[in-house]
Amino acid sequence: MTHDYIGEYDAIITASDQSAIDFYRKFGFTEDSIILSKYKDIGDCWTNTTKMCYLPPYNVVNDDPIRCLTMMDDQFQKWQKTMFSSYQNQAALFNRLKNEMIGLYAKINTQEQIIISLNRERFLLAKENASLKLKLSQSKTYAEENNEDIEQLETHQMIKDMEKISISNEKLLIAQMSLLMDDDCNTQMAIEYCTHKLKNPENYQIKAKKITVDSATTALYQSSLGSLHNGSQKNETLLFYYGHHDHLDIIANAGFTNEDFLYGSFGKGLYFHSMIKNLQAQKVEKILLCKVALGRIELISKSKIKSTITLKRNTEYDSIKIFDMEMKDDNNDDDDDEIVIFDSHLALPLFIVTFE
User: Against a cut of 0.85, is the pTM above it?
Assistant: First the structure.
């Protein structure tokens, strides 16, 4: 197998019968399928034989050590570039698939938030429409005299009000989705969101401090999403946490635990609010802005809730939204819903918000 007899070669391919396999192995032949895949088109397919190949060492070429070392180095360089290129392709494919999944989850969550917002706006518009019809029937005599002018003024005013509500809701939705989806969400966006959710914001100076959530807390949050009844529909939203005023800094550093549970209308759980209200009455100067995964939501009217604590809850739902239909105004900016979750790992603190 030296070049003195057969000249220079890249490999020797043979079809060995079963009894000669060990013989060829003694001389360095191999039946490795990966190596032989390069030479699968060489030779005929013989019955009851095994294709084997022999790859010569580098020193068989003219017995020149310098040339052998050069060839070895070239082969290593070629192998390194090939492996690096394969790794680049794998990393690029993984990154693109990850971004595709993130985009799909974000799109689903955005659509869910828009549906909830539109349903709520539809309910408020229906209520406003009924109120306008009642006022119109009560002032029918006066309306007959100035019917055309009044209708124009009311229509013009209604269009203005609806435009303001639409613009305000659009800004609020943009701020909410930015805070939910962007890991590098800025403090100014959080302040604007809190300002929109605060009653009489002109009376307060709002400051926000971003919370750095450690990887362990984030991992617990991500793993808990798999236990939601809605599956991939996480229903992530932004809510405010008032409880345990003296422990807010601890929660910001370590995340929520079962020790932060409070007793409320549905027993022990984490109780959040969708609006910031009654700061002076509750002597609240600091709250947490949190990202909360609600999963499947059970809607409960406050009029149906007993005055005593209800320990039983429907386990088919992940969270409970308590709303007061009697206290709802025509303008949904003042509507404060109370939300309860029963898994402390389904909430992540994002900002500490202070009011002066």
Answer: no
